[in-house]
C-alpha cells in the first residue's frame, strides 16, 4: 500500500536519505519549512511505515570486507519446510547483505560480503552443510559502480 506524499514530504525524505544525521533545523531550512512542522511530518511518515529504522552505512572495504559475491541459487526443493530452513539459514548468516527470491531459472540471489575468497568458501561450505541446494553459482564483483539505498522520491 502506498502512502500519499506531497512535495514537502518528498523533500524531507530526500534530505533524510542523503543524511539522516542532519538536525531538524537543517532539514527545515533546506525544505523551506520550520522545525515543528518538519518533525510532525517525519513522525507521521514513521507512523505510516514510510520511514524505517535509522542506521549507519559502513564502508565495507575500510573494515576489511573486500570481496562482494552475488550468489545465484537453484533448488529442486520448493516445499514450505525446505523454504523455512533455507530462510532461517540465510537470516543467521551476517555475510548475507541481501537475499531475493526470483522468478525465472534462478530461484534466489544473494549479496554476500566477505573479507576474501577463502571467507566466501567458508560461508559456502557452512550454507550447503545446513541446507540442500541444487546448484550454486558465485559471481565476484570486480568493481562496485553504483550503490545506494536512496529511493527516487
TrEMBL record:
Record keywords, A-Z: DNA-binding, Transcription, Transcription regulation
PROSITE patterns: HTH_ASNC_1 (PS00519), HTH_ASNC_2 (PS50956)
Listed GO biological process terms: regulation of DNA-templated transcription; response to amino acid
GO terms for MF: sequence-specific DNA binding
HTH asnC-type domain span: 5-66
GO cellular component: cytosol
Name recorded for this polypeptide: ArsR family transcriptional regulator
Amino acid at each position: 500500500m502506498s502512502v500519499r506524499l506531497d512535495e514537502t514530504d518528498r523533500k524531507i525524505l530526500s534530505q533524510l536519505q542523503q543524511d539522516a544525521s542532519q538536525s531538524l533545523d537543517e532539514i527545515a531550512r533546506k525544505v523551506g519549512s520550520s522545525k515543528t512542522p518538519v518533525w510532525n511530518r517525519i513522525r507521521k511518515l514513521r507512523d505510516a511505515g514510510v520511514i524505517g529504522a535509522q542506521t549507519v552505512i559502513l564502508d565495507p572495504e575500510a573494515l576489511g570486507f573486500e570481496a562482494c559475491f552475488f550468489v545465484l541459487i537453484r533448488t529442486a526443493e520448493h516445499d514450505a519446510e525446505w523454504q523455512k530452513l533455507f530462510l532461517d539459514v540465510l537470516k543467521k548468516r551476517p555475510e548475507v547483505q541481501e537475499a531475493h527470491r526470483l522468478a525465472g531459472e534462478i530461484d534466489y540471489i544473494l549479496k554476500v560480503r566477505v573479507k576474501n575468497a577463502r571467507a566466501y568458501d567458508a560461508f559456502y561450505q557452512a550454507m550447503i552443510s545446513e541446507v540442500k541446494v541444487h546448484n550454486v553459482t558465485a559471481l565476484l564483483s570486480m568493481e562496485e559502480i553504483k550503490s545506494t539505498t536512496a529511493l527516487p522520491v
